[in-house]
Amino acid sequence: MSHSVTIKADGSEKDYWKDLWRNKQLLWILSKRDISVRYKQTLLGMAWSVVRPLMTMLIMVFVFSFVAKLRPDPGVPYPLMVLGGLTIWLFFANTFSQISSSITLNSNLVTKVYFPRLIMPLSAVAVGFIDFLISLVLFIILCVWYQYAPGWQIVFMPLFIFLTFMTSLGFGLFFAVVNVRFRDIGQLVPFIIQIGFYVCPIAYSSRLVEDSWWYKYYNLNPLVGIIDGFRWCLLGDQAFFNPASLYSTIIVSLIALSISVMYFRKKENTFVDHI
Amino acid sequence: MSVITAENISKKYIIDHKSSKRSNSIRDLVSDTFDSIFKPNKEENSKGKEEFWALRDVNFSIQQGDRVGIVGHNGAGKSTLLKILSRITNPTTGQVKISGRVASLLEVGTGFHPELTGRENIFLNGAILGMNKDEIRRSFDAIVDFAGVEKFLDTPVKRYSSGMYVRLGFAIAAHLEPEILIIDEVLAVGDAEFQKKCLGKMRDVSDSGRTILFVSHNLVAVQALCNKAFFFEKGTLVDQGDTTHIVTTYLSKISQKNLERQWESLNEAPGNDQVRIKSFKLIPEYQDNLMHIDVRTPMQFQFEFWNLEEEANLNLSMHLYSYTGECIFNVGTTSQNFAKGLVTGSCEIPGHFLNDGSYVVSMMIVKDTSTVVYNMEEALSFDVEDYREGVTWYGKWPGFIRPQLNFSIRQTEPVVND
Asked: Is 0.80 surpassed by the pTM of this model?
């Protein structure tokens, strides 16, 4: 017969990735579920996806530009700089937190049906991605307002989106596994995101810290390269971007991703016993 | 051809007895770890955990087209076995080879999202159970029809009645087309008509050459549907074979054996200085060579006691209680004068009287029709199993008693066609 499996103690059957591919429709349908359920029974519905980044940006512009008098990169309007960084940061933050709670949120599935468990964290990306696209549209509108045209650098955008996805998966998967056993993760993740917001160059430009002695350590944060790079491809060469910071982005996220996937694969068969 | 082969599968769970101290957050884990480093003699650590084998060295093979019923007490390992076969959990040792697509229905409506409509949930649940979009689309109308929810297709399922919810869940699962179908206790839900539909559907599935594994406490349904059965006890597969044989074995083991109590000498017998109990027995009149009590079985209660007074005016009063404690009936004898010595009473319960269930009997000795001399509470207990013929409905028969009354039906006025 075409479809045969052997269930063993260690459970690491070689067809795992093939199985994952076979379940791509499930991935799609779970993503669709998360998206369509998101704003059920809310008054504003999808508008929330616009309101939140917009309000965050306005507050940041007020606090950091008017009150704290932070300076944008020369030639770039501050709101555009903030929204550019915010867009990619929110994509990372949403995806990361969705992934880290993806297994526990789907515990009813974990205990009742089999499918490759990686489907759950993967499908958790969808909601964040939709929000990202909406936020991007907002950015375009703001560009029209400021009459700011993006340059050729825009072609690199998919690369930065992909890197963000890899990084959030690399860190999120690990937390998703730990979350099954220790629900502390649910408390920890929002805290990490809150700290990350200030550690990453969102409200300010990396130019401001470029001359510090600790700049090379600052660059170890994989999101520095992503945020600066994403801003660069939206705003062109006027935005500060140190291509060298991408090395650490790629290296750190690849290492995180491979460790996380290995850890996930090792633990996924025990989810049901701990959840 | 064998579609499922299990070789020596075992499943171990670690039970943590320190339930209050279970390290469920990292802080606990850290403090527990510190505790165990600094106080290595702490007894709890060695005592706190216990191994529990939910399954132990289970071997079997299932042929294509077999309909296998799995019976056993709660905690016998049935659900663990289904979880292993459905790949939800891995065995600790051993392996299972499965050839063919498996669909497992351990719960009705797995993954239904309350906010989504019936239509959306059909696609969601179908995909979760392993159907692809085309398969779902093809059987969509059949599913809706089977569940009877046409009018509510675009209503969120959180507004569904529990009956509709279950019907929709089962309908989707029933239209799966797997080679192997694993089902856990789904007949416990739904109304009579729906249960009939379910069993019919399951029979269709097996007639088309597919394999079914079916766990149920409902032995009538197991007998109706399955051609083979496995009997699990304390994690081991103690017996397998044709359904009737296994069901008989199982019944003889589950019937509570508190059918007889007797005391040899007057000194150890319960009672007081007026009466002492000698024996109390329930003697069933088994209907066939199946040695268990079912709804057809007539029973006789025999009660013997020593009257220790020179002369006493006594009668017996027997109470029959359901397992949950409701009194189903109370019967009494006439009061008579007895001299010192042994007195025997007996009471018959006809067949086709009690419904299936568990029962407890108390016997009371009453003096002068007013004073309770001795009350032997919960003296005997017994189970009555279900038995049906000529019906296609297998749900729990309601009521405490199931008498056969003179209840007839006839046509009184036929319509004559011109």
From this structure: no
